[in-house]
Structure formats: structure tokens, C-alpha cells
TrEMBL record:
Organism per entry: Pseudomonas citronellolis
Domain SGNH residues, every copy: 414-661
Domain Acyltransferase: residue ranges: 25-338
GO biological process, one term: lipopolysaccharide biosynthetic process
Name of protein: Acyltransferase
Ranges annotated as spanning the membrane: 26-42, 91-110, 160-177, 184-203, 209-230, 242-258, 326-346, 358-381
Amino acid sequence: MSLLPSRRAWPGQATPTPANHFRQDINGLRALAVVAVILYHFDVGGLAGGFAGVDVFFVLSGYLMAGIIGTGLQRGDFSVLAFYWARARRILPALLLVCAVVLAIGWLLLAPNDYKTLGRHARQSLAFLSNHLYLKEAGYFDSASQAKWLLHTWSLSVEWQFYLALPLILALAWKLLPRRGTLVGVHLALFSCSLALCIALTASHPQKAFYLLPARAWEMLLGGLCFLLCSNLGLPATARRLLEAGGLALIGASVFLLDESAAWPGALALLPTLGTAMVLAARRETSPWCTHGAVQWLGTRSYSLYLWHWPLVAWLFHAGHRQTPLWIAAALLLTLILGELSYRLVERPTRRWLGTGRRAFAVAGLAGLMILAGYLAQVVVRAKGFPQRMPADILAMREQALQGTPRNEECLSKGAGCVYGGPDIQAMLIGDSHAASVVTAAQLALPDADQGIYLRAAPACLPVPGLHIREHPRDNPEDTCNRLRRQLPAELGDAPGRVPLIIVTRTSVYPLGYNGIDQNRKNRPQAYISSPVDEPSSEWLEAFARLYIDHACALARQRPVYLVRPIPEMRVDVPDVMSRKMLQGKAPQVTLSRADYEARNGFVWSVQNRAREACGVQILDPLPYLCDEGQCYGGREGQAYYADDNHLNAAGSRLLAPMFAEVFADLSTAQADPPR
């Protein structure tokens, strides 16, 4: 967002701008932008495209920066370090306070993993790298983003990165060829490249287009071009009014007509950005819409309002009041109050204090505070969110939730074959980490103590020949999944034919992609045949189905084969959500509707059914033990059944012992009544 007032204009204009002149039209644009963003985030007023307010801020930043840098270069007194210090004085104090307050609130309100995540976000926000972090996490428009208390700092990171690069580039260009046309040419070249990249990435990698500076710089460069080329167009009053009206219309159309389904930013972002440039070029500084006292109040405090509004949105989400009108109204009022206090008590005083006296002392003091805050945020991360601060009942629940399969490091992470129970092997259990998470349930179902289960599993591994996994390099023979694939046929050949094979995997991930808390990989299949695919097309799904069925049937020709239906993925970290609910005094229960389960896993069910019809493989269904008619349970009555969002813990695994007992009942029947 734009963070600096307009102070200087280009020397040599027909009507030079005084150094202390404050443009009310720029402040009015700030007001429009911050209101659009805030109302959009609070879901108020039908501003479905309010996110375009950030693009307005980007143009304003570029306009003002071009003015400051260009004026200084032509005057001969521009200093890159002084420029950086001016930006730091303006931006850092209020941001530092917001991060500190949010970390303090998180200590009181957040579950350990949530607090650890907040620490990581605060650290990256203070380093102005949060846009890169959020790129790796959920998309900006995903519902999961509302739980991120500092998500809005992505735009500050983009701007700060722009502030670091632009003066260096322009100063170097000016040194080589000191004329105004040089600055125009540099702006125009960078603008063209960035816009082309933005349009291309929006089509292929929209998250990168949204979060990364190279795809966003054109918006700020457009503002710079507007300053360099349109500061004194000499238009008559009527033309200026029409230009301003057209610009406001484009901004309004963006805010009211666009929505989250738009391919953004891309070419559509030209609407609010060109609109902003048109208003700036019109220079109607006393236009009635922008001179109103309320508009000027909002514009002057736009930075503080922007900083404080999003943590309140995140708090509403955290407290379960995201759709409650009264709570939303209270949060909006609190945004205005905090914005005013931050402006009066932080922004103005610190800008004045840091701009007077010994600069070295001021720089050292502000840098020290930033380093200290970043260090404290890192302490939160390294301490894993300080779980010891939780009440005793929550600590007990979390300790129980993390009780999983014994020998997991040896038997899963290293991919070694392991026997659970006695030496008399009654079944072979193969698959990925889901197989490892339920092996103790299969062991519990064994009729005799001297009987055992042989487990062969590897993380994120579907042991189907011809399928490759994104997370496992094809040419690395020591990779645990590749080693399992290579060694499994011999191990199956050595096992007696009567020993059944049970296959347990997080099957839907491989043809369909991740879901739930791993939003960044959502809908991107994790398996592939010849080369990775980016979406589950019908051709890909049928190819996957054929390989899966052929492999299951090949195994079924050697021994009894049982395919386990997918274990419900809860979409949220179960221990964290239960901790959060217990902190809020709510019933500690986590559920997933059967309808959501069926929508997620219907394809895999159909493939498993086809395998049963093709060659008689048998199917084990965990749902009767984890779900009722309407809901599947991740935890209830203070007990978590999952260690995270998709892996059953020891308590959840025990629920499946009756399911595995079906295998051994079939085995006993077959042994008691051998074929004649």
C-alpha cells in the first residue's frame, strides 16, 4: 500500500509544486483504497472486488517514489541511504507495534501450532519477506488465509522490495545517462516486462503472479510513468474533470464488479491501476469527493487502518464470529479507533523523533528493536509455540494426540520392513504413512499373542508399478519409496501364499492432490506416469485407475488382497482445533461431514469397486468405526483421534481393530475349510 505523502514535484514544471504541498486527491485515493480493502475483508457492503484497493496503493507508491527519486537525482542531492531511512521511519514503527501486539495476543489465545505459525509469519513480516512465505501456503482467497493474523503484510513486503530495488536501478541509470528520458525509458522497459510476466503467470501460476514483486512491479512502475509523463498535461478544466471521472469509474467498476473468481492480477488489474493513474493525471486536488473531512481523515490514517484491520478479521475467524453482524460492526469500529491511536501515538511521533537528532542513534535504535522483535518471533517458532503455557487438560489432550505408532522412525521414515507382534506372520500391511499409522490396530486384531503383522511402508508412497510420486525422485535408488517398490516383489514372493496382503494408503492424494490444510498443493495430483500433471483430467484419472486395478489384480493372483477405503482427511489439524476450542470453552469436537468425505473420495471408491469386480479383491471400510450416519469424527469428548489432519493416532487407530479382525476371521475360515 502507499505509505508516503506527496511532498515534491518534478523540477521545471510549468506550475511547480511547493515542497510542503500536500495533495488532497492522493489522500482521497488512499481513503478509497483502504475503505475498499477493509470492507472487502470484513465482507461488508457488497464490495466483492475490494481487493483491488491494494492495486490502487501500488500505483500511488510508484507515483510518489518516482517523484522523490527523480527530483533528488535531477537536483543532484539524492541519497539511496537517506531514501531507505525515510521509508523505514514511515513504515517500521507501526508495523513493529502490530507484530508485537499480535504475538502477545497469540500467547493468550492461540494453540501451540497456531502460535508457532504466527511466530514464523511475524518473523517474515519484519524481514519484509512474508509474500514469499504466503506463496508457499494457502492462496490469498482461500478460507484458510483468514486464520493468518499477518497475511496483509504481503503487500508491505512487495512494496519494500520495490523500494530497495528502484532507487538503485534509477541511480545507476542516471549516472550513465543523466536525463529525464532515461528515467522514463527505464520505467517503461521494466513496466512492459513486468506486465507481460504478470499476464503470463496469472494464466499458469496465479499465486506467483499475486505475491511476487516481478509480477507486481508494473503497477508501481505505472505510477512512476504517470508522474514522469503526466505531471503537467496542461489539460483544460473540462478534460480534467472527464479524466478524473473516468478514472474513478474504472476503480469503482473494479471494486463492485470483480470478485474472487477473476483471473487476478493479470490484465484485469489494468482497470484499477489505469483508473488510479487517470485520477493522478487529472490533478483535481480540490475535487469535492476528495476534500471532505472524513475522506481526508481516512486517507491520512490509511496505513494504520490497513495494519490493524486484518488482525481483527483474523480474530473474528478465530473466535467463530466471522459471520456475526454485531461482532463485525464492533471490529470495524475498533479498526477506526486503533487506526487513530496508531496514527497519533506511533506514526506521527516516531516519524518526528526519528527525523531529528543524531541519525546514527535513531537508525541503531530502530534496527535494534526490529532485530529484537524478529528474534522473539523466532523463539516462538523454535519453541514450537510454547505448548507448556497451555492448561493441564489441553496438555494432556495434546500428549495423547501425539501418541502414534511405535518404531515409526525405523519402520516408516527409513522404510525398513518391521514385524509388529509375534513371529507368526498373519498378514502383510503395505502402503504409505497411513499404513504405518494403523499397523497397531491390525496387531490388536490378531487372535493370538504369538502372531504378528509385517509392515512395509514409506512416506508418501503408493507402491504401484508405473506410477511415480512427485516427492520422490525417479532416479534415486536409495529413496525410501523407490527402494520399497524395488524390494517388495521379492518379499511378496518369499511370503506364504496364504498370508493376506492389506493395502492402506492416502489414496486420493495421488490422483487428485492434497486438500485441507495443505492448500498450496490442492488439486495437483501427486502421482504421475511419464511426467507430472497439474490437474486431475479425465484422461489422467482413467490412466491412474487402470494401473491401480491392474496392480491390485496382479497381487490378487498370488494371495488374498484387501484394499482399505481412504481414511477421512479432517482438513484441519485436529489437536490444534481441539486445543483452540478448549481454550474458548467450547466442546472439543472435530468433525467432517460424510458428504464432504464422499465428494473427496468418490473416485477412489469407484476404482476400488472396479478392482473388486475385476478380480475379487476384498474391501475394508473404516467409516463404520470412525463415522456415524452424518459425521466422521477427528476427536470428541476431549480425546483426539488424529495426530494432525489425516494421520490417525494410537487412539484413532484402536478404533479400527474390529475392521482388521474381518481379515483374520476370513483367514481362520479358509484354514478351517481348505479347498478340496
